Amino acid sequence: MKWLRILGLVALSECLVIIPLTKIKTLRETLREKNLLTNFLEENTDDRSQNATDDPKISLHPLRNYLNMVYFGNITIGTPPQEFRVVFDTGSSDLWVSSVVCSSQPCSANKRFNPHLSRTFRRTRRLFTLKYHTGRIVGSLGCDTVRIGNLVILGQEFGLSEKQIQLDRVPFDGVLGLAYPSLARKRTTPVLDNLKTQGIISQPVFAFYLSNQKENGSVVMFGGVDHSYHRGELKWIPVSRTHHWQITMNRISMDGVAIGCFNGCQAILDTGTSLLVGPTTMVTTIQKLIKAIPFGREYMVPCSNITQLPTFSININGSDYPVPAEAYIWKSPKGPCIINFREHPKPLKDPETWILGDVFLRLYFSVYDWGNSRIGLAPAV
Predict the structure, then answer these.
(1) Using CA atoms, how far apart are residues 132 and 271, in angstroms rounded to an integer?
(2) What domains can you pick out in the chain, each with its CATH number?
(3) Which residues sit opposite 323 in a β-bridge?
(4) pTM for the model
(5) Number of C-beta neighbours around residue 296 at 10 A
(6) Helix-then-strand count for the chain, H and E
């Protein structure tokens, strides 16, 4: 399954966490002052959350690569912690997981949150709906303690899925959105904002390294950048709209010949989309250039032709970011070679907007600096 998400969320509210207007103390400092730190750490330690870097300011968390289609990692919710596999998604801003009351068939394979087992859970009696390209989720909203490794967020709002339509056979239990708060619903505080306002991380920065083919080795990092995951210097790109992680592209070319985006166009960097998604006219042009043929709802090329196919390249701020055919062709385990370009499932306000999903982000280490509204890119190691 190619997981292509088009997300809309409605009717969520907020969980109140009182933060002093004076200098914000970290959770660790507050607990230490009240002589509660030792007990808290003993109760909430997760041996798998050890940082993979020597820099104490950077918190690294492993992600699993599922067949180059989706990346997910573990978080916990509640006290005592209940563990879930979630997609760390730069294309949305809200957190949800499956609920124990979900009776839909897709939920049967998921780990499900049981609010009755958490003494820190608070229900808000609010409903929510998530609309995906491949299905729909409905449920209720709650608040609880969320842990991303050693990062502990108090009173985090999250959705409890109670009905899942069509979202079956997905290898994860929920989604953790990492886009701007304007993409979340009114009166909600996304995970990113809580990480900052509760003083949990030192810098409002996170980054992704997505491995190619290997099941293990991918990471998401919070609070800084581990530069061992990329080659050369990061090139910084201003965010053109603080909603999605959206940037301006200058040109699109195939083997050096410009084929689109002649007057500039927009692109969204989205770790929750596995593909390169573009306007119908552009995707059709690319299909013709590489002589792709229909294969069900997708397009394919003979696997023997991959080495002869042109390189797809994006120019951003005067720098080229090439995507070779080996990256934009997906060789299924027992099937043909499928092209990883897709048309937008529905028209967008800007018809030339692209979504740069995991096909692109496996090639380029990406840094998301929401303090300065910019994205850093460099070739991944």
Answers:
(1) 15
(2) 56-226 (2.40.70.10), 230-379 (2.40.70.10)
(3) 312
(4) 0.86
(5) 7
(6) 6, 28
Reported confidence tier of residue 134, pLDDT bands at 50, 70, 90: low
Residue 290 has pLDDT above 60, yes or no: yes
- Kindly give, in sequence order, each residue whose CB lies less than 8 Å from that of residue 226, ignoring residues fewer than 6 positions away: 52, 53, 55, 58, 60, 207, 219
The CB density around residue 39, as the number of other CB atoms within 10 Å, is: 10
Measured CA to CA, the distance from residue 70 to residue 38 in angstroms comes to: 37
Q: What is the pLDDT of residues 92-124, one digit of tens each?
A: 999 999 999 998 887 888 899 999 999 999 998
Say which of 89, 94, 144, 358 is annotated catalytic. Answer: 89
Q: Report the share of the chain in percent with pLDDT over 70.
A: 83
Locate tokens 């949990």: which residue?
A: 200
> Taking a C-beta distance cutoff of 8 angstroms, is the pair 377, 334 a contact?
no
Tens digit of each residue's pLDDT (9 = 90 or more) over 193-212: 999 999 999 999 999 999 98
Active site residue 270: yes
Active site residue 47: no
* Residue of 94, 144, 270, 358 marked catalytic: 270
Name the strands in the sheet holding 276-278, side by side, starting at the edge strand that comes first in the sequence: 241-242, 245-249, 265-269, 354-356, 276-278, 341-343
